[in-house]
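Much of what follows relies on a compact textual record of a protein's fold. Here is one such record, which you should read through line by line:
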Amino acid sequence: MPVNIPRSLPARRTLTDENVFVMSTERADHQDVRPLSIAILNLMPTKIATETQLLRLLGNTPIQVEITLLAMRSYTSRNTAPEHLDAFYRSFDDVRDEKFDGLVITGAPVELMAFEDVAYWPEMCEILDWSRTNVHSTMHVCWGAQAGLYRHYGIDKHALDAKMFGVFEHEVHVPTARIVSGFDDTFFAPHSRHTGTDVADVEAHPDLEVVATSTEAGLYLAQSRDGRQVFVTGHPEYDRDTLAGEYERDVERGLRVDVPAGYYPDDDPTQRPRHGWRSHAFLLYANWVNYGVYQGTPYDLDLIGVDGAGSAPAGTDPTSPDD
């Protein structure tokens, strides 16, 4: 089923060319189903690229999805045309009285700053607190995951000795968790960050479970035990060339940066990068949309956050013999 996006959004042409099923509002209005309402809080400077990456993944599910793009009111992006933001984005003030089946919170290039020093941290706290009552399930990505773990559970990030940069192998620790349904025992995913979250801190919290980690990259996937909060410390949404673009940018700036690990054949940046994480990226988002959102959200959006409405999103399958 398609993701419902405006006809003039730049991502639409790219996704259509890739044969991703997208739909206009006019066509969606003639289908007798309630689409899932999912908001994307896009904090990345490369907003159009990030929109396309996330919509590609959200458009590969059997459920119609209606997207709302959100930007911070307390910070103006310097890398995206104001006309694009005005045409396609809403502010938190516009939606604070609305409810959503799902919310995706992206990463942001502010990870080396203390949370409280980020210009839009007060607004971020508002949104994170609001999400607990107005959103059925939230997917937090990279810095968004760190911010969510800090605000909701008091788990802080820490600076790394060197940038975690490349594509790393990960191991699934909770194969019965619905968020990794269909995953292989091991899988690959990209990371691009200067900070990390200790696995032990997440394991020690009674309301959280660690679902997947990497020997090299550490924590990758965790969730609340009811499945309503999902935390992904990497960037499964990245395109084949995204890490290459970041590497070339840093080299041009004269920064000391290593070649992304496990990315170029023979670590040779003149060669085409491998794209070995695509299938698990699609599966991760499909599982979240299906099990984390669709299977639990109430039909009436107004009932989200009301005790007894809907059902808890699927976390770990209680019927599995391995549980």
About this structure: Residues 318-323 have pLDDT under 50 and may be disordered.
